[in-house]
Write a structure and sequence with these properties.
about 240 residues; alpha+beta; Porin; eight-stranded antiparallel barrel; 3 helices; about 50% strand
Length: about 240
Amino acid sequence: MNPHMQHTPNRSGVATAAPVAASTLAALLLLAAVVPAAAQTAPAASATAKPAAEQVIVPQVDRRDVKRPKYASNDFAIGLFAGTYATQNFGAATVSGVRLGYHITEDFFVDATLGRSKVSDDAFRQVLPGGIFVNRTETLSYYAVSAGYNVLPGEVFFGKRYAKATQGYILAGVGSTDFAGQKRQTMHAGFGLRLLVNDWFVMQADVRDHVFTLDILGKRQSTQNIEVTAGLTLFF
């Protein structure tokens, strides 16, 4: 074999490899150009897709000022009452007065009353010619401040078609009693019932026990004085 023929390179192989390398390089360059373009196109597409979710038609609503209605609270109350006041040792007599109230909540309220009565010593004059008082009658007046709690709500039926709400309550408080020239601190407790005719008009009745000390008969003693009254009350 001729040695020159062994070391001669294959020119046809080199010619074939050159086109392959060129095509590979072109493919890499094309891929490098396509990838960034695709990365930029994806956010742009998502950004373009967002407005599709937005509301197409925006309603045009004219705002206007609305005045809220004002309703009466009906927390305050004023009323008149009359009944009997049984003074211990001197019997019962007519009593009358005025009351003011304020309802703090639906259940709790405060109440102030001012009452006046005429007390007679006729029972003693049958035994003692001069009686106990300088005059035959003495004026008893008092004022009282109470705190109350509403209990036992219910209804009263008038026939088959009409019904009115009722409200029971309990109360207690302090005050002062002026009787026969003596002013005494007074404590009281009681209970009552309201009949609500409507939102602002109420019929009311209650029973109270006024406790204070007296020494008219020569001995200082604690007295129990029962008051039973009924009246009309207006809420505002």
